[in-house]
C-alpha cells in the first residue's frame, strides 16, 4: 500500500524527494532491493548529505542477499561521506572480503 501511494505521488512529480524516500524504504522493507536501490540513487542525487538516506542506501548495498546488488566499495564511500565509518575493521568480515576481492581484481 505504501509503495502504491508513493508511486502515485511520483507519477505526478518523479523527482519528489519525499516520495522517492518513502518508496525506497518501502521497497527495502518488502525485500525488493533492486527497486529500493534505484529509488535511493534518485533520492541521493537530490539530498547527498542526508545521513538517514545514506544509511538506508548503504545498508541495502551491504546486506542484500543478491550478490549482484551488493556493492562494498559504494558502502565504504557512503560511510566515509556520512562520517559514520572510521575504519574498515568496523565492517562485517564478508563485506571486507568483498571489497578486498574487488580491489585485487582491479
Report on the structure:
It is a single chain. The chain is mainly α. The protein has 6 helices and no strands. Helix 2 (17-30) packs antiparallel against helix 3 and helix 3 runs antiparallel to helix 4 (51-63). The radius of gyration is 15 Å and the shape is globular.
Span between termini: 43 Å
Query: Considering DSSP H and I runs of 4 or more, what fraction of the residues is helical?
Result: over 70%
* Bulk shape: globular
Which stretches are low in confidence, meaning pLDDT under 50 for 5 or more residues running?
none
Number of strands: 0
Identify the notable features of this structure and list them briefly.
globular; mainly alpha; single chain; 106 residues
Amino acid at each position: 500500500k505504501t509503495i502504491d501511494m508513493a508511486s502515485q505521488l511520483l507519477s505526478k512529480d518523479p523527482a519528489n524527494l519525499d516520495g522517492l524516500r518513502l518508496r525506497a524504504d518501502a521497497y527495502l522493507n518488502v525485500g525488493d532491493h533492486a527497486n529500493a536501490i534505484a529509488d535511493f540513487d534518485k533520492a541521493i542525487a537530490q539530498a547527498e548529505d542526508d545521513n538517514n538516506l545514506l544509511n538506508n542506501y548503504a545498508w541495502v548495498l551491504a546486506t542484500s542477499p543478491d550478490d549482484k546488488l551488493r556493492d562494498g566499495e559504494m558502502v565504504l564511500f557512503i560511510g566515509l561521506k556520512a562520517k559514520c565509518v572510521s575504519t574498515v575493521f568496523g565492517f562485517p568480515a564478508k563485506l571486507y572480503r568483498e571489497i578486498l576481492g574487488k580491489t585485487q581484481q582491479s
